[in-house]
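Collaborator request, handled under Task 6.
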Amino acid sequence: MSTTTTEALSATTLLRFATAGSVDDGKSTLVGRLLHDSKSVLVDQLEAVERASASRGQDAPDLALLTDGLRAEREQGITIDVAYRYFATPRRRFILADTPGHVQYTRNMVTGASTAELTVILVDARNGVVEQTRRHAAIAALLRVPHVVLAVNKMDLVGYAEKVFAAIAEEFTAYATELGVPEVTAIPISALAGDNVVEPSVNMDWYGGPTVLEHLETVPVSHDLAHCHARLPVQYVIRPQTSEHPDYRGYAGQIAAGSFRVGEAVTVLPSGRTSTISCIDLLGKPVDIAWTTQSVTIRLADDIDISRGDLIVPTKDAPATTQDVEATVCHVADEPLRVGHRVLLKHGTRTVKAIVKDIPSRLTLDDLSLHPHPGQLVANDIGRVKIRTAEPLPVDSYADSRRTGSFILIDPSDGTTLTAGMVGESFASPEPVKDQADEDGWDF
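Structure tokens returned to the collaborator:
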């Protein structure tokens, strides 16, 4: 492959990453510095930040204002909602999710990191690893984020001391390793001064690793999902019944994983009916093959009763269907999740009634121990649950597929999202617990 071709491919590589950390660790400042020093800020945006900073009596532009866009965020100096930013360098394109640090907004970190391939976790060099740091590391591990960067910030406030950085990096890496995080890269930075964010720091000549941007540009990101389990959740059945298309019947959706080919034998779940792909329509044109993230319409050789919520999969690689789902969850609602709670479970495009049959354990973040049978999970708790659904679901393990191994629990009374779940085993695997009978009328 020529150098020109390699550079062209590199320039189109996309990295989704999220930032996380405790309150006042400097996440928004880091993001602002990253955008500013990589020349990804428009002139009018910078001028607006300069005016806002001057009105608050600040001598220099507050780069955190580039991401803290809500009025309440600016007034309080904190991040409340997830702020998404899109930028690019000559080497790579980025989608960045700047997530809040407050404990009550941990649910937003789950949202921001759920699609991330890398998470930057900030630590204040003066405070070291705190509970919220451990919580964010646990969430990154649960969400199977393949790359974690530990950014030890505010090194200027500890005299750029190598021993301070080394102690924090050692403690965090040991904790993350216990969680099963596959890779941790520790970088000492000062987001306010710009040390090791985009340019190497002259104040830390003892550090010989990459800057934050250099690591983001070079970390290996695999977008080859051809070997994943192919899955197409049906979003819509297209049946025009016009004179031009009297017999057209297509099943539209976004391919969640893997690839599909014309002529391939497929199974429709949960019914289990089988057929063969006769045509794949992409952007109004027939194609022989389609793959992950493409939105397509698949036509089958046989007329089968298929509706929204069904899952089309290769017959040779079909998941088992089950009404008993065991998962690790992060509870995100203010209302606790209790044993016996009647909920709606949304998996892909399918939503079914369900009951929380048991909560075998809750994770204690300090020492990663399990509190057995807590009876409930409150906001930001991480634990194991056993759920019984009213209808069979074709679920994958989250370890195999982040798309078809995840689900959310919804309050049926008002539509509130209660819990984000990851199917299968995790670092918080409990001992098997016998189900208890349910007396609430949703006993499936």
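The cover message to the collaborator said: "The first strand starts at residue 14 and ends at 21. Residues 1-11, 69-80, 428-440 have pLDDT under 50 and may be disordered. Please let us know whether this matches your experimental observations."
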